[in-house]
Amino acid sequence: MPLHFRNDPLLWAGWLYAQDGMTQNEIAKAMGISRATVNGYLAEARQRGIVTLTMEPARLSEFMIARALKERFRLSDCIVIPDGATGSALVDRLGQAGARVLERLIRPGDTVGIGWGRTMMALARSMSTQRMADLSVVQLTGGMTAPIGFTPELCVSRLATAMGARAVNITAPAIVSSVAVRDILMEEMVLRGQFETARRADKVVFGICSTRPGSSLFETRLVPEGEEAEQTLRHAIGMVAGRFIDNRGAPARGPLDARMIGLTLEEISRIKLRIAVAGGVEKVPAILAALKGHYANVLITDAATAHGILQAEGVPASLNALRGMKRSQVEEGNPMKTKKLINDPKNIIEEMLDGIIKAHPHHVRQLEHSPRSVVSVAEPRKGKVGIVIGGGSGHEPSFVGFVGKGLADGCAVGNVFASPPPDPILECTKAVDTGAGVLYLYGNYAGDVMNFDMAAEMASMEDIEVRTVVTTDDVASAPIDQKEKRRGVAGNFFVFKMAGAAADRMASLDECERIARKANERTFTVGVALSPCSLPQTLRHNFEIGLNEMEIGMGIHGEPGVVREPLRSADEVTDDILERIFAELPAKEGSKVAVLVNSLGSTPLMELYVINRRVHERLARRGIQVHANWVGTYCSSLEMAGMSITLISLDDELTELLDHPCDCAMFRAG
């Protein structure tokens, strides 16, 4: 049975039936059981709510994400545990999952190598008693003296006791005072014998540690203070079994690494079965790097972390739909497929970008070595702050449409509804940097935050100063006292415009950052969805909504809104949206605003102008002047029907920046 079904035949049968569309005879053959047994499994699965017409969404999410990770990183298997609803700590749940997998894989005569850390200790504690013949458990690194409960020695001892196995310790420190001392120790006969045992391991299990401040790495005293440690940590993003790796998964060589005692990454990679057990969104960059380096061929993680890894890689999947949202409309018992004018969905982003470049050759170009990095054709001016934006595709003209003079200098392009990976962000950064620093502007989504942060860290290694402003204009996505959690949606338009104008006027990096934050604080958006969109890869609606329903506050990826109710008239919907904005808009009688009425994809201009008319009426009654007004498609959600209204409260400074000329592929002003 595949490991990701966690030894539950009901889940396996349910998957084959609901997702792979197999008949009961085909399921019986695949599982090696009788048709009658399959019938019994499916009946019990229905009774337990695992299977209805489709798989129960939480189970579906885990398996779909696990399969996507397995395919993406060529893993032998992947196990994704649910996000914590039980209240138990993530490290304990990961340890339990790792123990169950290891118990299934252990064979008589095996030698098992184990790393160190909280997760490894949780795994060892969760192991049921094994009494197989000739088992050995061996350390992968030298020892530690730190007063912590998860040193390599303790992890080996605990696991060996649970398995009734022989414990083989590495009787030397994990890091020594010099390369010469390390070389001498590695020639000692006792140590050579211990390492020979470790190299012959049949299986290894290890955690993955982040090098970010506050991680368990710094509790171990493994990293001494000094220049050598700083040199290593400057390039390292994570640690695998006591060895540092960079963001691409390559060994982070350096003076500190040369003083370490333990299996090398190359030696670990030669062991046949390599199980990584790690989770927590703060570890996503480190886990992603380990997967890129292929140090693990079995991954055990949690759903939130797995989701973050896929988003960081820009995997084109409807990940929001996998996280508990219902599947789409059905017709005659079958899910409806949508119609799109596309070729191979795998090539849709490249073909779209090719079309954009051909349509706007005087505004944008792709970097030859990084085609997902789109920059302005205008040469960067010496001393000008570079503006880099980016996000997932499917929101056109956002984001790539706002690259040009007086706006953004570069844009990193992700897959549909997926963050761009760090590499194209970094390439944009290097392309637009002229020595004055670079400002990142993007919406507040976990994948974007993670990948832009990684790119900023990489840019700092190349001596490029990067600042970040995350947009949070979506009023409906979080209450006002949690504004920092709000999403960035169509209001990006105004933040990009203000910051781009400031940079074009040769403002400093400090000033550009201040202007962007000010614009974001004064920008407010609320949207309404009338019908779903569908991804090119699936041709399935990404959420379900009734034919006569609307949802106020729905996000641009189909994230749930604040209220679903029967469809109302244009004026009533506009009034509802404006009341939510007016509750926070810092604009009094006699003040000025700019207005953006935005289509989410398929709502036509006719309807948008009806909405715009009502916005002006409501503002006029409050004595608020409309200084500028845009109506059209500026931030879409593929073919979703619906619209959003954005207001920005203007003062003299912002008004001047708003009026500053700009000229980009899909927008021109001044």
From TrEMBL:
Residues 344-667 form the DhaK domain. PROSITE patterns: DHAK. The keyword Transmembrane helix does not apply. Keywords: Kinase, Transferase. InterPro entries: DhaK_dom, Dihydroxyacetone_Kinase, HTH_MarR-typ, NagB/RpiA_transferase-like, Sugar-bd_dom_put, WH-like_DNA-bd_sf. It holds the Pfam family MarR_2. GO terms for molecular function: kinase activity. PANTHER family: TRIOKINASE/FMN CYCLASE, TRIOKINASE_FMN CYCLASE. This is Bifunctional sugar-binding transcriptional regulator/dihydroxyacetone kinase subunit DhaK. It comes from Aquamicrobium soli.
